[in-house]
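--- STAGE predict ---
source: upstream dedup step, 1 unique chain passed
mode: sequence only
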Amino acid sequence: MIECVPNFSEGNDMSIIKQITDAIESVDGVKLLDVDPGKATNRTVVTFVGEPEPVINAAFLAIKKAAELIDMSKHKGEHPRMGATDVCPLIPVSNITMDEVVDYAHKLGEMVGSALEIPFYMYESAATRPERRNLATIRAGEYEALPEKLKKPEWKPDYGPARFNPRSGATVIGARDFLIAYNVNLNTTSVRRANSVAFDVREKGRIKRKGNPITGKIVKDKAGNPERTPGTCKAVKGIGWFIEEYGVAQISMNLTNINITPLHVAFEECCKSAERRGLRVTGSELVGLVPLNVMLETGRYFLKKQNRSLGVSDAEIIKIAVKSLGLDELAPFDPQQKIIEYNLQEATAAPLIKMSLQEFADETASESPAPGGGSISAYMGSLGAALATMVANLSAHKRGWDDRWEEFSEWAERGQVIKDALLKMVDEDTNAFNKIIEAIRLPKSGEAEKQARAEAIEQATRYAIEVPFKVMELSSEVFEVAKAMAEIGNPNSVSDAGVGALCARAAVHGALLNVKINAAGLKDQKYAKQVISSGEKLGRAADKMEKEVLKIVKDKIKAS
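--- STAGE serialize ---
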């Protein structure tokens, strides 16, 4: 899978953008994830994903449609631009290398270059020469510089004609890693002051001057080139601008490598610079989509800064990230739309754990054989982990225990991992049951079909054993957290740790019953006996651990 994030030089007339996105969605195998228009920038960032061939076909149609609808000779906007489709990067998402994405970028370049009278340049990993890697270098002078630029041999396009196209300008196509387009809002309308903050933060910093940093004489090196004072954040590009629709100035940044400069670091550096200059950061906005891990890392950073437990749900961590960065200042921030992994999820994914408690209980009680004991066992295990985690989080916030918050945070994080893994098994157990049903329903008229059906049933049955066995293993891990919380956690919640242990034991033994009933139908009885033996061992260990936890709980209740 690859992602394509074309930027179109139109952000006001949504009928034009709709025609472009309709062209994208006309290609089977492509999913449109996000359309993010900006009025002041007069620019729209579109995000779509799919397998490589459909994606480059959709990109071709989008570039073609933009050339038909957008007249660059009339374009005005705050964002640097040079073409109707200004830039069209391809990004590897899964099961594809950057080298392969580069090949697809050039294939797209050939397609549009041979069909459209537009100059095309290749950038980043797809660049044909080192000086063209940087988008800013290619776009220097913007649309207005193209007539003279295209006359120079060194600016001959990689694809398409070396002729100025007054209507469509020029387009840059490339292959790059995931980039985060991020704007930080300031309590000022001054572009100059916003630029000062951007220059403090961005990697290339600002030009050195003698004396006055604005009007002083430029300091040059021996070769006569201006010297620069680097900014505080590597792999960050940035400028300041004024956004009329919001009535504020922003620092507009591209974070080109979030492993070098994470989102929260860029934000914090903007805050520091703004404060030094008598300004204040009031919020920020993400343009396009963001990976889940970026939001989780940001949320954890701010939780840690507050000396708060990190062992809370992903939803809570994301909420902290949104509020800390002020991502909802200018418009609502919907994680389901703005986080790429959530956006890609199918509506039917994990139907059981998305149900309400009432719906889940009603579905279990219905005449359908699934969800059954296996899913319920997984859910009981997750509840046991949740209770132990709750005690850890309450302990991290207990008055007088402030110096121990990290200790309990670590326990809470461990509990969250176990809980989340068990929740996934709630649906996976039902999926395993459905695989057996599907295998049983396979045709069996001929000898070959009978053999294929028998093999499918065997494999499905084996999987229906592996899933509850995994539930047993995960539920067994609950006891360590529950025991620790019974021993050292908030004494007012010791009974909750005990209930967590009770849930965990019930989950282990419930899942063992599923292992045994499915193992009875397996042809490979050697494997069946081995897994039952291992399961019974886990069952005995669960009995022992439950007794140990309950003894601690009962002793503490008596002593209270």
